[in-house]
Batch of 4 targets.
Target 1
Amino acid sequence: MKKIEHIGIAVKDLEASNALYAKLLSTQHYKVEEVAAEGVNTSFFKVGENKIELLQATDPQSPIARFIDKRGEGIHHIAYAVDDIRIEMKRLADEGFILLTEEPRRGADNKLVAFVHPKSAGGVLVELCQDIDV
Ligand code: CO
């Protein structure tokens, strides 16, 4: 793991939360991107070297919608940058962590992503992300 790449925060209303975070961080979001396969609309803020990702469900069955139903708005995942996501997935699986998918998937912001189940990671949903060269 190279660094914390971003912190993902589940929100009910992306526009309202963009306004809130613009005030909190004193900067505007730099992109909005829908990840249709995950049923989510995202926006990103830069905070120094790190980022905040806001996630709003676009589908009531999506993982973000279910998360908010159960726990309300708040921190959803911590994402770590990795050089080679497949090597890191294998390392974590060998260590006994439960990965949500066998293969990495295309995530927001030009990343390949994979998730580690919170029940194997101390209650925190962990995202691995590797830059896609564009
Ligand atoms: Co994320």
Target 2
Amino acid sequence: MWITSHVVFLKTKSYSIRMIGSIKELTNMMDSPSKEDIELITRAFNFAQKAHSNQLRYSGEPYFIHSYETGKNLALLGMGATVITAGLLHDVIEDADIDEEEIRKEFGDEILFLINGVTKLGKIRFHGLKRHAESLRKLFIASSQDIRVIIIKLADRIHNMETLKHVPEEKQLRIATETLEIFAPLAYRLGMGILNRKLEDLSFPFVYPKEHEKVLAIVKEKNNEDIELLKKVNQTIIKKLAKEGITNIETSYRKKGAYSLYKKLERKDWDVNKIYDIFALRIIVPTVNDCYKALGIIHSFRRPMPGRIKDYIAFSKPNGYQSIHTTIFTRFGNVVEVQLRTAEMHGNAEYGIASHLSYKTKKTKNGFIPTNNIWIKKLLPNIQKLNNNGKNQNLADVPVWIKKLAENPNDVQSQEFVEELKKDFFEHRIFIFTPNGDVIDLPVDSSPIDFAYAVHSDIGNHMSGAKVHGKLVSLDTKLKNGDIVDIITKKEITPTAKWLNIAKTADAKRHIKSSLKKQFEEDRNR
Ligand code: MN
């Protein structure tokens, strides 16, 4: 055990011990940590504090505050001791010159792997080209190899954004743009609504300062009257639902994030009257059935606005988001958006993939439920069919672990599940680079033909050969993660029927078929 903390405090007298945080504060956020968990976190806390003891942040604060806040963000997300430990240590190799061997000796291979992953991601930089943003997001996923690495990186970025105002001005825009274009969409893609909103709203004022001011002014104007209105509507709805036997409910108001509101205002010509969900009423009911029942009850006494009823339970958003949304006219003549969901859907909407890696359970009025499951079910919609009517289309496409999940939804916290999840997320897709460094993601076993069509249909239609890492390969070569592929084209080349057997993606097949048909018709008319 080291005696280190006073070194930090002597150098920066203005920061008290409380500001640095404490091991106790961290472990208190965890759900019944074991003795080993606490011991591990204690060692990491002391190790990181010592490693960074000579360093300060731009704010003048001890560097360790950043490590601590990253660990804390991870604890808040419900991560276990391993991930929190990696979070505390995430900068010790890059910024404190600790060598890998020392980490391996002190904390083992898994934690070293996570730290190295985060360090590697830190080297990928976004330089403002919007058309590269999607490639970069994919590259992030491909390079991280483990979802936990991305989650640590997101927790790190939250604190960096919270302290961005201390960073030299010339760096602020790049970092904030990167956050807005890469990290926030990644959090969204992973279903982590809470991180997505936070990252967007922290970057917004740096990337679009004028627009940010404008949005704030609009929200300020709306604030008070709308909250009062929502409270009244909430009371009425609670009474009506109770009368119909739905009593176990929790309600809350949610205010739309400033950046999300900005994007919507852009789409609606800045006419705030066309936006109905600046404030929304969130109603959490016990079961899926209750969601639909509540919708019926609400519509029977308040007229819904046509075209505004959205059933994201039956048709969830691509990132797994589930809820029923409706916009109703109140008796005061205003409109209010109401969102209906179960506690489980709520947990998934806020924490997404993190809830699958988390060992936390959520206490509701109906007892403890694991805050997981739905996200993954929605990622592979087949599971729903499997559950609801037992008839299953495409059952062959459903990975084994998903089938198991359907049989026993509470099983998801096992190590096995986490392993399978990682595999599924990373192994069903491969990431192939163009010679310019753009990233194309394709299904496993894709060929250069699939790649060529994914780049552009003209390139596919006139492809005469392909090089992988500079070497000519046959068109039926199975591409591997990280391959750099160069497609050679010739104007006179056109697809042949053989290509159809090689192509794997629907997109390539469609283009080949239409080209073959065209050739056939041209031949006939000759
Ligand atoms: Mn960091």
Target 3
Amino acid sequence: MKIVDARVIVTCPGRNFVTLKVTTDEGLTGLGDATLNGREQAVVGYLAEHVAPLLIGLDPHRIEDTWQYLYRGAYWRRGPVTMAAIAAVDVALWDVKAKAAGLPLYQLLGGASRERIRAYGHADGRDVPELLDAVRARLDQGYRAVRIQTGVPGLKAVYGVHDTTADGSAVPHQQARPLVEDWDTDAYLRHLPGVFEAVRAEFGPELPLLHDAHHRLTPIQAARLGRDLEPYRPFWLEDCTPAENQEALRLVRRHTTTPLAVGEVFNTVHDYQTLITEQLIDYVRSAVTHFGGVTPLRKLSDFAAQHQIKTAIHGPEDISPVGTAAALHLDLAVHNFGIQEYAGHSPLAGEVFPHAYTFADGHLHPGDAPGLGVELDEALAAAHPYRPAYLPVNRLRDGTVHDW
Ligand code: KDG
Ligand code: MG
């Protein structure tokens, strides 16, 4: 079998998604997600100009060799743009291989290790009463685990507290310049334990509660927060410190037993070396889409497993249904699965990407269609073209730029 066509398709069914579609001489097609939120066109250029021409004539079954060819062959390694482009190729080739075998992808990854995949959803509110309503709404949708984020008194716009559309999905920031959010770490550290206390008081001790600090704390601040949250038994504290500094987690770890989750902005296993070998975290959070695909994420899972660390693949709205499906096949197959983030997509995104995966009773399943189980309605995609959008930026009260 040979690849005869490789095309990049950008669509905005409510938010931008970048998809690679490969076609073989046997008429099989494969899809890969290359969406890099707020920097989509950089990946489009990388894929269309530098990668797609190299794929023509290759045997799509040679996934490992193609991965190494694109990773080592470029000389310039790593980084989100490069790794999103390689991920799209990797996932598209896995899709082709599994379709050629007539099997859902998880069967090629070793088969199912479980019946279903526990998911967590997002609940947020500008204040505690709004958050409690949002948690209730997620429980009504069937979720059995919830990430809780709230506004902080005195701050106008805080990470994770969304404006929502009529269907409840988050409004993407489609404007010429990034929205500016504001931040005050002391106010946040004072506020958050009370938020956990209120949610526990309302929903009891069993509901798994997660929280994302989105890289904003120093190690000692993160240590304090982890300790202050311990009475409420969080499922995890995510991205407590800026991701570049792996050593920072040593200090956090010394002070708290709150489980730690890290990795949505990581692109390769090298970003995890210290974190995994020194067992400084409990969950690896990388996305198939930003980590070079199914091939390296499988290797990461196995490396993490040797250190009793579980997987928790990144699943925000800005990973397309193609990237979501790829995650679900891995989730079902790997032994050390922990939990899957599932923010869901707008109904229109679901129509642009018809898919076999299902969500019911708080759990996901990738379905049993051959391949990934996701298609792309190209006519509908074309009817919703790319719209420039940025992620927000973050400033302290005195105007200093802070981590977003
Ligand atoms: O594009 C950025 C989002 O994917 C990120 O902010 C979401 O932190 C996130 C999460 O945990 O889902
Ligand atoms: Mg996060």
Target 4
Amino acid sequence: MPRRSILLYPDPRLRMPSAPVDDFDADLASLVQDLVDTLHGTATGIGISAPQVGDLRRVLVMDLTNDRNGPEVYVNPEILSRSTPGLVEESCLSIPGVVGNVVRSTELRVRALDRHGAPFERALTGMHAVCLQHELDHLDGKLFIDRLSLLRRIGFRLKRALGAAS
Ligand code: NI
């Protein structure tokens, strides 16, 4: 199955909100499979969202298994409840070379549809919960760098302006 190329910051499509999925058709099935393949094609990625491959549908995929053979698909995900905020280190496939600390809930409950349109609910903790929030942000056109402290954001812009960011 084909891997798709991952859009890189500051591609304007990363800033656009994605639309809910209504059609669980063959086109959605290939998007889901391509997202899984694209994620597994990266060296260290644990999650990817449809807008990162230029498709503005509310779909995200995560795989936090060690041998990367347990992809989870979330279509139209919604966070039902969250608790226990903590400071966690994040990076993003669309912003290579940048790592930063972000405040995220480390426990949450999510509702979504699977790739066939069947609803499910799941409790997530730790990196699982953090990853879901990061990918859900992508569906709203938000990036983790938006959540960095002001000082860190200024440093990031400065680095880019000086051409130091890779
Ligand atoms: Ni990301």
